Amino acid sequence: MSTDFYGDILAASGSYKFLLNGKWLESSSGKTVPILNPATNQTAYTVQACTREEVDAVFEGAKKAQKAWARTPLWKRAEYLHKVDGLMKANAQPMADALVKEVAKGAKDSLTEVIRSGDLISYTAEEGVRWLGEGQMLMSDSFPGQDRSKICLASKVPLGVVLAVPPFNYPVNLAVSKIAPALMAGNTVVLKPPTQGAVAATHMVQAFHKAGLPPGVLNLVTGKGSEIGDYLTTHPLVNCISFTGGDTGIAICKKAAMVPIQMELGGKDVCIVCEDADLDLAAKNIVKGGFSYSGQRCTAVKLVLALESIADELVAKVKKGVDALSVGAPEDNAAITPVISKSSADFIEGLVKDAEAKGAKLLQPYKREGNLIWPLLIDHVTPDMRLAWEEPFGPVVPVVRVKSVEEAIDHCNANNLALQGCVFTRDVDAAIRISDAMETGTVQVNSAPARGPDHYPFQGFRDSGIGSQGIKNSLAMMVKIKSTVLNLPQPSYTMG
């Protein structure tokens, strides 16, 4: 660790601090939260277990700082963000190393996440200067019955204090995707990172701190979600919640009352493979899309819906790709690394055993060591199996054989999870028709589902989310419209 850049985030005890009003502090609770290395199930780090009183102080500091931050010129906010980008990239390795140990992400992919996050921050700064700087002027006489006596000036103003809650699988990238638009729009931010991923997020927050942000503009709270989660999301000083995760997000929505919310939740992303598809291309994307980061991505291929006529050939090609995947430690950049926790591994195993008991065919032997599950392609999955509907969030790809494209679309639309999907066909007209019929947030044509590029709109339907992300959409989420109406004096004369 670079002592000059990261030294003040670490307490003498070895535990990582939290950030309140520009100061790195230890919690008055005297307690810490252990972060387990998924590969060893041993404690890799500890972070502060913040109290409710400290949560109050964080929100009060953020609220106090917000008005001055909102008056900071757009160009100046952008200048801060560009500086953060440079600092993150110059000090990326400790962030990447933490990702390897906390969430078992491959070393190469961990570093890529940090660099991509810096790019997202700078792009947000540029887009924010342009889009946030635009207003609108409306004249009253464009509405029937009105004369030209009023002018409406519509402007974009910040919401206030934004609570940002990213997930374990992308604790840096999905944190900055919330933080950068919120700050650029003139809000202040309270960040609650996931427990697994909190240290990487702490390193990331240090880049914002070192960039010279005014105290209270960005704050970091750590602790167990079970102890302070509800207190954070229902706090009276919260003006917006941006959350990425699973079922917890639905509970937050029910408690959020009038607070604007941006939710990216679970996905059961289907891959429809048509009879005319390029099967080599489809197989390559199924392997990459289904097994990257051990399938622990909201945009992973979670279910293949293959037309019966090509299913045998497709499955054989996918099996060949799965059999070639490396399995091992994230430090060695293995394709398949341990999943995040024992509870996650147990859940995945339950889905596999349910499918096997009901007649599905496992094309590789089921093998598990601790949290490490070897990749599995499971054929002949049927709608009565849990794997046909539930999200494993692990290195398991089920295949359902369908008689028609319509059957595939019906299965896609019957699931309450509707984040992304993809379709493989050589017929562009068919691709558009199928995409139009799939009731899901994004459909990729001839490629696996993917979140980025980060400026693309990104959203889920039904239980997969509320609101749209992507840089411009997130900027729009972080503001409200204010109208100032000028009432013009009427002339005392008439035009001849």
TrEMBL record:
Keyword Ribonucleoprotein: no
Active site: E264
Key words of the record: Cytoplasm, NADP, Oxidoreductase
Subcellular localization: Cytoplasm
Entry's EC annotation: 1.2.1.9
Enzyme category, top tier: oxidoreductase
GO CC annotation, single: cytoplasm
One Gene Ontology MF term: glyceraldehyde-3-phosphate dehydrogenase (NADP+) (non-phosphorylating) activity
InterPro entries cross-referenced by the UniProt entry: Ald_DH/histidinol_DH, Ald_DH_C, Ald_DH_CS_CYS, Ald_DH_CS_GLU, Ald_DH_N, Aldehyde_DH_dom, ALDH-related_metabolic_enz
Chief place of localization: cytoplasm
The Aldehyde dehydrogenase domain, residue ranges: 24-483
Highest rank taxon of the organism: Eukaryota
Family the UniProt entry places it in: Belongs to the aldehyde dehydrogenase family.
Protein name per its UniProtKB record: NADP-dependent glyceraldehyde-3-phosphate dehydrogenase
